[in-house]
Amino acid sequence: MTPVIQLHPENAAGGGCATAPVLRERGQREVFCGLTGIVWLHRKIQDAFFLVVGSRTCAHLVQSAAGVMIFAEPRFATAIIDERDLAGLADANEELDRVVTRLLERRPEIKTLFLVGSCPSEVIKLDLSRAAQRLTQRFLPAVRVLNYSGSGIETTFTQGEDACLAALVPTLPAADAAAPAALVVVGTLPDVVEDQFARLLAAIGVPQVRFLPARHAAEMPAVGARTRYLLAQPFLADTARALEQRGATRIAAPFPLGVEGTTRWLEAAAQAFGIGATRVAAVTEAARTRATAALARQRAELQGKRVFFFPDSQLEPPIARFLARELGMRLVEVGTPYLHRELLAEELALLPAGTMLSEGQHVDKQLDRCRAERPDITVCGLGLANPLEAQGLTTKWSIELVFTPIHGYEQAADLAELFARPLRRRELLSA
């Protein structure tokens, strides 16, 4: 592993929940699969296409999850595996080649084609890694074909993005060893948020800022020993590992959620390039003032309210930190599918001491704990929300926290509003 640039030593192990025990559960889970990541990835990488190789069930999932694209021609589709393929009566590789050829003839603007497995290769009887290599040799330089797994057996839904970006990293151009150090911001962000961060980092004086994924294949960042990368999402462990194998160094920081998280994230980037916190404070003063003022209304509504997180997206720890420290909410339990201590070290140090942390899921046991605690608001997946609402618990769909722009100063109040709105609705209904 390459060294990590450490920031904020006052939050090292020993503070907050840095060394807190974690309840690890292994049992029945309730999460979407990694295919769901296609819904935001296909919008971000504008000359890429995502071809899911899977069943009709997988096709229905992607189509229903991305139903908002009904009036546009989307950049995803499903190559359906039927009984003939599974029985070996048809040559699956030959059929896949035929589908890909037809697709690229119809959509010549495609520069990167992702083959997304809906199940492990042992199930679909097709080695997509070898298929991607074969198709790349055939279609380069016009199109590069990559593959990753979106299987729900192997991933939660945000890990679909992690698998996609990890597959992309080995194809990134090599950075010139003589070039100045550069910063790569890693993680899919809405374009408006990406533009905000680009302006702030440029004003602070951080040189050569690029984003992964970029909006087009030709704009993907170069990576090398002088590359510093800053994660914008906490669920990118495989991508981080792949970048470090290319020689890049991670800048340790909390995630840019809320005023505090965004400020510390920008300070970390600045410090890694020798820029002082006073410069960051001067550049961000107006945005911090606006965001703090905008949060005041929601804080009045949310302070003292108790929140319970079911594991779903891996965004739970940084969002819990934001709710506790900036809105005064009380954390009953913070559950997350995977707790990557290295990537979340700064977040854990900022959580209130004594916070109940859980990793993985045994959904029946966690439901029992949630019902016993009767929190003011429960953050959970769609499959649990309606049953919990029927039992009198107010819920927030965790998937909204992925689909909604929530990063940065300008979105801090929008993030708080996602929690204030269900409580407001509950009060109106019970009045």
Q: Which key phrases capture this entry?
A:
four-stranded parallel beta sheet, Rossmann fold, six-stranded parallel beta sheet, alpha/beta, 3 domains, 431 residues
Task: Explain how this protein is built.
The protein has 431 residues and is an alpha/beta fold. 43% of the residues lie in helices and 16% in strands. Helix 12 links the parallel strand 10 and strand 11 (330-336). Helix 7 (159-168) runs parallel beside helix 9 and helix 10 (258-272) runs antiparallel to helix 11. The longest helix has 26 residues, at 277-302.
Quick overview:
The protein is of the alpha/beta class and 431 residues long.
Number of strands: 14
Mean pLDDT: 89
Share in helix: 40-55%
Task: Give me the secondary-structure category.
Answer: alpha/beta
What name goes with the CATH superfamily of the largest domain?
Answer: Nitrogenase molybdenum iron protein domain
Total helix count? Answer: 17
| Main sheet makeup | 6 strands, parallel
Low-pLDDT regions: 6-14
Tell me, briefly, the overall form: globular
CATH topology-level fold name of the largest domain: Rossmann fold
Q: Judging by the overall fold, what is the CATH architecture of the largest domain?
A: 3-Layer(aba) Sandwich
Query: C-alpha Rg, in Å?
Result: 22 Å
**Proportion of residues in β-strands:** 15-25%
Number of domains: 3
What topology, given as strand order, has the largest sheet?
A: 1-12-11-10-13-14
What is the class of the largest domain in the CATH system?
Alpha Beta
